[in-house]
Each structure stands twice: as structure tokens, then as C-alpha cells.
Amino acid sequence: MEVVRITPRGYCHGVVEAIRIAKRVGAERGRDEPVTMLGYLVHNEHVTRELEQSGVALIAESDRMKGLDQVREGTVIFTAHGISPAVVAAARERGLNVVDATCSDVTRTHDLVRELVGRGVHVIYIGKRGHPEPAGVLGIAPEHTTLVETIEEAAELEVPEGTRLGVTCQTTLSMWDTQAIIDRLVQRFPHIEVHNEICLATQERQEAAVLAAKDVDCVVVVGSRRSSNSQRLVQVVQEKGEKPAHLVDTADDIDPAWFRGMRRIGVTSGASTPTQLTRQVIAAIEALPDS
Ligand code: SF4
Asked: Of the residues 61, 73, 133, 143, which is catalytic?
């Protein structure tokens, strides 16, 4: 089976930086006090073990406030997804040392929301309910932000007459779905301020996957089911690339039946997927006999 390696793929700058920060803090403080990362950054045993060896424990709780209840002392590290000010305040109140590994692209969205709300603008935020990144952004000014997840919700949104509106979004959504929701909002509220905050890493990976889909029979995305950007890669290949796409955590998830009658398989991976896992998936597909 021929494998087309889609680039760019894999770790983005935000994930690389957050892992670097966590390992450094673990090495500096891990022997003297507990160091805990609040939420999973990378859903991978190998990386989790590496962090644990650096003295960093992980709490697998997507609700950060609930996760914080499990941290009694020491240092708490916030992941690249960003964090609500209420969780930061609660951590400080408990006397925890706080280290923020929020990605600079997510921080930019936080700053933008503060700036918009400061100017009296009500912010419509396009994002996925229950994901830690929207929870962090919405926590900045809960009464001045409204989460919208679908085009149907955008069509039904009610706002009081005369409200100044702005729209922004989660960094890891499908570029095309997000644009469609923004277009619907602009149609309904022509004066809305538009700030598309899908990050460059997400855009580049989605564009490359859709482009590559034209030249392959199928695309395999290596990534966790809990990873928003990995799920979106599958979605954009299916919807925009019009090719079958499968999400696999590891090479063990590959089902040879997917590739029956196929010759060329594209492989890409999410922004939090370790390179080593992608290599193993590529090797496993290359080892499959032609069918
Ligand atoms: S996907 Fe984008 S926003 Fe999220 S950590 Fe990576 S670069 Fe930052």
C-alpha cells in the first residue's frame, strides 16, 4: 500500500511549548512539591509517562474547576487550551502556585474578548460545548458572551434590539463550518464585528488534508477521539475532500477492510499527536498487502 504523508501534520507550536513548559516546571519543582497539569494536553500514554518521569502528574478532567478540586498543594499547570479566570482565582485562593501554558493563539482570543466586551460589544463565540477551550473563553465575561455551536443555533439566536455584536471562534474548528456560521450571522446582523480566530496550525493542516484528499483513495488521521482538531481533520476530508477518512489513536485501530480496492492512502495527524505514533501508523499501512 502506498502512503502519502500529508504535511504539515502533527504537533503545533502551542503543544510543543506547553510540553516544554510542563517538563521544565516538573524538573525544577517536582522533587520538592507536587506538580499537576490540569487536564490532558496530549492524549497519549507515551507523553503522559514522559511527563510523569519529569515529575508532572496529570488530571484527566475536562471540567477544569472539578479537576482543580483534586489538587491539594504544590504547582498547577494550565494546558494550551486556556483557562477561565474563575479557575485561576480558585487555584490562587487555595495557595497553589500557578503556571499558565496557554497557547499564544488562545491568549489572543482571550484578549480579543476582553477588548470587545470592554467596548460594550456582546460576543457570539462559535465553539463546541464541553470542550476546555470554549470554557476558558466564556469564563472571561459569561454574561457578555453567548456560545453558538451550529448554523441552526446561529439562525435562531435572539438578541435584544440595538445590541452591539461581535463574533469570534474556537481555534480548532472546521474552517468551512465556521465560515458558514459567520456568514449566517452576518446575514442576520449586518453590523456584527467578525474576528475569525481559527489558528494558522489548524488552517494549514485542514487545507493540506483537503488538497491531498484529491490524490488519494482514503485518508487516515492519527489522533485522539478527544482531540477537537483531529476530529475536524476527519470531517473536512469527508466533506470538502469528498474521500473516506478514519480516525485512529494508534496503529492497532487500523482495519485493513477500510482499504479494500485502494492503492494510495493519505496520512495526517492532529496537533497533539506524537510523531512516533504517526510513524507507526504509516509503517503499519505500508506493510499491508495490495488488495
Ligand atoms: S491547535 Fe492552534 S490554538 Fe491550539 S495549541 Fe495548537 S497552535 Fe495553539
From this structure: 133
d(CA 278, CA 199): 22
| Boundary residue ending a domain (103, 122, 145) | 103
| 135 Cβ closer than 6 Å to some ligand 1 atom | no
**Is there an atom of ligand 1 within 6 Å of 271 CB?**
yes
Per DSSP, what are the bridge partners of residue 5? Answer: 267
In sign, the C-alpha dihedral spanning 189, 112, 272, 289 is: positive
Atom index in ligand 1 nearest the CA of residue 14 equals 5
Whether omega for the bond prior to residue 132 falls within 30 degrees of 0, making it cis, is no
Domain-ending residue, one of 157, 178, 194: 194
Task: State the Cα–Cα distance between residues 218 and 184, nearest whole angstrom.
Answer: 32
For atom 2 of ligand 1, the residue with the nearest CA is 199
Q: Is 38 in the pocket of ligand 1 (CB under 6 A)?
A: no
Which range of residues forms the domain containing residue 91?
13-103
Residues 127 and 86 in one domain: no
Residues of the chain with pLDDT under 50: none
Structure confidence at residue 43 (pLDDT) = 66
Residue 201 Cβ inside 6 Å of ligand 1? The answer reads yes
The count of structural domains within the chain is 3
